Amino acid sequence: MSAPALTLRPVRPADRDTLAHVAYETAYFGESAARFFPSRPLFAALWVAPYLTPDGGGLGFVAERGGEVVGYILGSVDPRRYSRALAAQGPGLLGRLVTGRLPGAVPSLRYLLRSAVYGVPHPPADLYPAHLHLNLLASARGLGAGGALLDAYLCELRARGVPGVQLSTTRRNAAAVHLYERRGFRVWAARRTALWTPWTGQAEEGVTLALDLTRGRA
């Protein structure tokens, strides 16, 4: 019997828990985020929830195999709407923190503080307003899911007239960087950063990639 084929569909708000699971299990260079970010609920609130709110300017697709979500691409087309949606998470998170209902939050702050200090610069938001996150479970790697999700996302951005898209990653994510570069992304900024040193034991090369979607547009 042949293996189930991959299918793509738009992200739905009801996907939140599933996307949070995929995100958490793959966020540390393809492995679990538990190594650097102990709080699952805080991780989901920061990197999944803002894209699924009506006001977040969110856009995304999931890849399914045999009825199981094995990967997704998720982002926003409007940085201001996304920032508001992210900020809206704050009061609820603070309330959960002070009442002890946000396990692992305090040690997770180490990554957030380091990210603020050691982040890589971003291109102008007016030229590259969209951004994205692409995550795949191990079972989906090597099946073309990443390329299919990225193509679907870029196609929708072009249909909406979005002028550009950006993302941040590291050279350690070599397969991902190669995928983006094959789709026309170019390195906008790159520098050695100590962000990941507590967990990888060394500085990593952080990169910001950007794609001008206006090229070739009539």
Question: What would your notes on this structure say?
Answer:
The chain is an alpha+beta fold and 218 residues long. It has one domain (6-212): Aminopeptidase (3-Layer(aba) Sandwich). The protein contains nine helices and seven strands, in the order βαααββαααβαβαβαβ. It has a seven-stranded mixed beta sheet. Strand 4 (130-136), helix 7 (145-159) and strand 5 (164-170) form a beta-alpha-beta unit. Helix 1 crosses helix 2 (40-47). The longest helix is centred in the last third of the chain and has 15 residues, at 145-159. It is globular, with a radius of gyration of 17 Å. The protein starts with 5 loop residues before the first strand and ends in a 6-residue tail after the last strand.
Computed over alpha carbons, the radius of gyration is 17 Å
What is the succession of H and E elements? EHHHEEHHHEHEHEHE
Give the name of the CATH superfamily: Gcn5-related N-acetyltransferase (GNAT)
Overall geometry comes to globular
- Separate helix tally: 9
Main sheet attributes: strand count, strand direction, barrel closure: 7 strands, mixed
